[in-house]
Queue: 2 jobs
Job 1
Amino acid sequence: MNPPRALTVAVVGATGVVGQEFLRILEERAFPVKRLVALASKRSVGRHVTFAGEEVAVEDLDETDFGGVDVAFFSAGGDRSLEHAPRAAQAGALVVDNSSAFRMDPDVPLVVPQVNAHRALEHRGIIANPNCSTILLVMALAPLHRHVPVRRVVCSTYQAVSGSGAEALAELEAQGEASREGRPLEARVYPQPIHANVIPFVQAFGEDAITLEEWKLVHETRRLLEEPDFAVTATCVRVPVLRAHSEAVNVEFERPVSPAEVRRWLAEAPGVRVVDDPDTLAFPTPRDAEGGDDVLVGRIRRDPSRDTAVDLFLAGDQVRKGAALNAVEIAEAVLVSPVGSPPGRDPIP
Amino acid sequence: MNPPRALTVAVVGATGVVGQEFLRILEERAFPVKRLVALASKRSVGRHVTFAGEEVAVEDLDETDFGGVDVAFFSAGGDRSLEHAPRAAQAGALVVDNSSAFRMDPDVPLVVPQVNAHRALEHRGIIANPNCSTILLVMALAPLHRHVPVRRVVCSTYQAVSGSGAEALAELEAQGEASREGRPLEARVYPQPIHANVIPFVQAFGEDAITLEEWKLVHETRRLLEEPDFAVTATCVRVPVLRAHSEAVNVEFERPVSPAEVRRWLAEAPGVRVVDDPDTLAFPTPRDAEGGDDVLVGRIRRDPSRDTAVDLFLAGDQVRKGAALNAVEIAEAVLVSPVGSPPGRDPIP
């Protein structure tokens, strides 16, 4: 491995929930940043973000030409990615895009480094960061599927409001206050109040009355596992939790598998932490996952309905492993520590 | 049907969340109450409850002999039911017991009137009210299973804190306040704070690291459907919602079934209301189920992983249909309007 060279890093959507987390994670991991470029829409110009103890002025995405940018993390919505990611890549930046714009594009790798890091090296300038719920699911699923083929997955999510951005976090807080004061709860981000509620509807409806979020879990899981017909169904539900997603997952294998085997395979999986002990009431919760890097997996147990299936429960920080952390890990896999890249290959695209 | 005669009704646990709901429901439904007896433990003696506009003094359960009581609704925990329900039945009362004490007792019918009202008439003095999550699940499942045999169910719950009683409701509120004021959150009822969290652990762990709540869903569903080997698995999760439970349910049938068929069968099912329209963003939520009698079912859609399966989402008031309402309906089925009872049979046990 060559020593990492210092890089010019752009964060697009730098003032958002995920953008802010990009800055924290780049610092925490000592990502080799020579210069940080903070980009956002016109209305954020004039604001500053903090990186490595310094104030960085937010620049206008529309006016930026990306010349000299080595890596650009995009987290400003699909429309902005569609418009600006190709020209950033054209200008020579490695784009890691957190939107859904390119995730099903066959020319754009979809990557969770612990699952398919090798695909990152096939990029043509853009790499897609998967949907948050899908990243968490696949972190637990891929290690199992490598040991014994998984035949079918039934997944129910418990998704934090951070997935809908800062406005949703503010709405949840305002609803809590209104409820305490006996005022009516106002809902703008979601079709109903999320305070003291759960909403079985994430994002928008798609084909067959399945939501887009549920379809992402189906299609992106298939792509990440490289199993075009992988059988997975999901119900995606928003819950009044701040920033970690949880998932109840039923995993049906090709043959009977014991909970002890599943526990062992997950204990060996990078980025996964098994939290699973009935005696000490240890199980994953979004509170415990918040702020951490690992996907917590527990409640691993036999399925009384089928001897080839196992039930489990997982939780992971939606803003970190579900978004910014996974994207930074993708960039690291390509630029800093090119796992599995051929010797002598230039790690900069 | 004979005109209902006026009855002496005892509510055991009258000061609790479910006990209070019993009083409301008996009033709302004009249950033929001649005299209401409010019973609780010694420490509640001296308190009063309100019924039909009158104050009723709480009496000591230990000192009550149940002579002259026609029906006794028990909701004071399994230990009190085990101790006092048999002697209430002995004294001639019909006991409808909301605890888990007798639910798997082959001499005690386990009843959801919309599902197996006929079993209520086989009672020997005690009828068991099922677990709250199980009642809601079976309300949706039984009508489907009658049309096309269901082969397997995977259920993930989103359970309100009311299921843990008034103390849990107070704890959730106190944690909300502590969070707002930046104080540490204290958890006593649950092993972790439930505010802004979900906890994949309800009640206690049982065999095979499956919780007692999850086992109830398995065993009580089998009993209610009269299918001793019915294949069902569940993950039971507590969420920061006040009093309606929700469930994401994957239902696998013997043969392919369309979402339209499922929607039609559920629309015809008593006690079920289909709330399911992507165009108007209509789907069940615990907020909408709160205070109502119906189990709301929606998000009815094909399962992309299996053509014999359908996904759905349901919500129902845990304190009402999940507890007090179902118990009152059981009593009505036996005492007031004996559905399916042979003519001439004395409806009073």
Job 2
Amino acid sequence: MTDELKKTARSKVKRVARRAHYDRDTINAVLDATVLCHVAYVIDGEPYCTPTLHWREGDHVYWHGSSKSRFLKSVVGKRACLTVSHLDGLVIARSAFHHSVNYRSAMLYGEVELVSDADKAEKLKNLIDHIYPGRWDSLRPMNGQEVKATTVLRMAIDEGAAKVRTGGPVDDEEDYALPIWAGVVPLRVEIGAPEPDPRNLDGIEIPEHIRNFRLGR
Amino acid sequence: MTDELKKTARSKVKRVARRAHYDRDTINAVLDATVLCHVAYVIDGEPYCTPTLHWREGDHVYWHGSSKSRFLKSVVGKRACLTVSHLDGLVIARSAFHHSVNYRSAMLYGEVELVSDADKAEKLKNLIDHIYPGRWDSLRPMNGQEVKATTVLRMAIDEGAAKVRTGGPVDDEEDYALPIWAGVVPLRVEIGAPEPDPRNLDGIEIPEHIRNFRLGR
């Protein structure tokens, strides 16, 4: 595994090539900073765009779903595109044309692999502990039926690119003389105060991984 | 156009069918509440999942991009899947299996249509005014070259579904006796204080559509 992703024909179709990054650190940072991705599959020639949770372990990105889903099973061994996007701000310019957004995104391409039954339980532990570090050991243990009811898929991080835009508007030089407000409206995901389940037992303390919850790593 | 979307085979592959909604009000509310969607296309049999801005006008959802993009042009007349997702919270249960997320999503399927040159300028006005109500009239007018450099695509809102999950964890009955904290960590998009461009003219006031900016409608 190299530190850079393959620059395939797919990479070349990016709308703004100069925003593309192929280094693994940038791509990993985009993947790791949230838990929501969108996966595009093709089934019978039709595209599907499914939002799902993802997590990364080294050189692979993982997602999961119900084993009952023929949909998930039907994509094993096929190509998919997994995309993670962060909308960081609205970029407000002096002309409509130069309005933009600040964002970080990663688009990965690869073949979908089915995680074996032998490895599934460990991967599901890693999912929980990725979102809530250390939570797994505090839970009622997973039983065999639950593992069986879950499908875990993965894709090698090998092909694709990240794209990042930051900063303010870039207007046509003559437009800077116009009396038009320009700037950036920043956006970020706010984590609200944890809401305890009404059926929590008396005296149960909020665990550290919830009290100091962070989205992503 | 009916008030309900077609329930095709595609709709049936939803992982949790009971969370599906086919009424237009629910779907429109999911679409309208943000500006970021993900569109899945198939090109030469390969899936692509592209994050982009979207807006809705009546019975169609629109997106745009650079006219230079052969990528965008190559999907005209082909099927796509446009998905909008809101991650509203993390649902924390007493067993790994019942952890979940609160979300609103809409997945739409349809054929991609190219908006004609005659209609493009009006659509781009609608994009700006969708994100920043009333801003278009305050801008340096769009010129013909800029309109030409932009491709606008759309899809009829006709086939697909919304899915919504709200509320706390639903645990196995016997697990409620366990001394494990459960609950919800809410997430929402926070809109930061507008950051004026350093090159704004002296005395330019921040317009109302920025001062009271809301993401989506």
